[in-house]
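Supplementary notes for students who missed Thursday's class. We covered one full example, reproduced here. Read the sequence, then the structure, then the short commentary at the end.
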Amino acid sequence: MKRLSSLPTPSSTKKTEVLYGAKSAVAKGVQFMKNVKNRMDITFDSKAPSIVVKVKEYRNGYIDIRRRGGKIRAITEITQDNINYCKELAKIVDELRHLDGMKGGIAVSETEYMATTILQEAKPLTQVIYSNVKEIVEQGQYIFDILWSKAIPSKLRIKEIEEGTKREYIETIQDPSETQKLVTRLLNSASEEILIIFSTVNTFYHLEREGILQLLKRAATERSVKIRILVNSKDLMKEVEQKLKEQSQQIKQQKQQQHQTQNEQHLIDVLYFSKTLYTKITTLIVDKAFSLSIEVKDDTKKTFNEATGLATYTNSESTIISYISIFETLWIQSELYIHE
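Structure (token representation):
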């Protein structure tokens, strides 16, 4: 066994060390599990479920913790390849969750911490980091708790794999620059339909400076995406229509220069709504599959980043249907208003 020198600690009983070799690594893991009093929280990548199930020292250690009344929470990445191992793992832990892209592994108890970066399917660990230093244990617990809050129940992930169901999510975005990038990504990915409600005039101008009109026009002319836009000003409606025509001419000229003869379909409609909205939320719906709601924090600011607050991004079917219903109601009212 090779061991790195322990980090200096106030007490000789407190240590942090790295152990090499399967024999030493497994022995330390077994001792770690024997020391668990109330709980063991553990994370590992997609290879690890086979290790826990197949290597008796680990499996028996898990069983013994629970026999003594301890609780085990585990996070791993559940895949098509390891799903059967995960079903077995779920039987010997109190709760199993899934998180995409897990790497390596950490384990935390009340007083100890272990970690590894080297995992091989159905084989014992060959290298582990161990510590009983309070600050390191607390840091490991903090990391686990963050990952736990982001992970989903194993039953949901298994259902996704076995039944091909879609995972629904709702994400809150706090950084306006990330929201801006997401707007661009969604518009570039649209293949069928884009619906937008601009809650304020300035919100439109903020996004115009970020190139949204060009993205919309390209979506319509190059991918035949149907686009409908609602704005809250008649003057803005006319301005948007004029600017879209200018964008169309620019794209047409570029295509002629590139000797492209593809037929263009102008599929963008713009209407304004006279009904007052009681919230300053700009809403983007793409392909009836994704929605992005952007809060206007301070409409007097000059840039998108300064003016924007929180944003909510989701693929939840019920949420998207609600947003579409709101959009269609406003659209119908706007059409009726124009024809009065």
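Commentary. The first strand starts at residue 16 and ends at 20. The chain has twelve helices and 15 strands. If anything here is unclear, bring it to office hours.
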